[in-house]
Write a structure and sequence with these properties.
With about 190 residues, this protein is α/β, with parallel strands linked by helices. The protein contains six helices and seven strands; from the N terminus they run H-H-E-H-E-H-E-E-H-E-H-E-E.
Amino acid sequence: MQDYLALLLRWNTRINLVAKAEARTLWARHILDSAQLAPLIPETPGPLIDLGSGAGLPGLVLALLSGRETHLVESDRRKCAFLQEAARLLGLTKLTIHPTRIEETASLPPAAILTARALAPLPILLTHAHRILAPDGVALFPKGRTATDELTAAALHWTMRTERFQSRTDPDSTILRLSEIRPVSAQA
């Protein structure tokens, strides 16, 4: 993890991977915030897919912790170059980077675990999750103060099994573990 952090700090001087003001708090704000998802990952076999991976948060961190087959989806080519270098340096042989927009991904395997951090509101994430998750897959979405409002908005179009976990790194944040995601129209 220290090698990843050092690489992230080095590359962050050239491309904006994380906000410059946050470089001093990178460990707690980004690394630990991502790592806290690891205990919430079920034992189910299958790949982990991280959408909008950016600097690899949380996908690359979870790949390091779990050794699980992991796919990172990121449309920014510069960030993909960073992710490729991080995978090489850290020896992550089960990591695949998809340099494309989420909507254009066609070669992803069904995800046992789907993650996305600071990417989009929940109703949008659920559209992706419904398409990408395996039938028994689980989505882990860290959310801030708007988690309840996002769940309310999502309930207009989606049904799902919802579990909420208090963030260990931010008292105002929560982690949503969602499964059995279905469009409301499919329930009729």
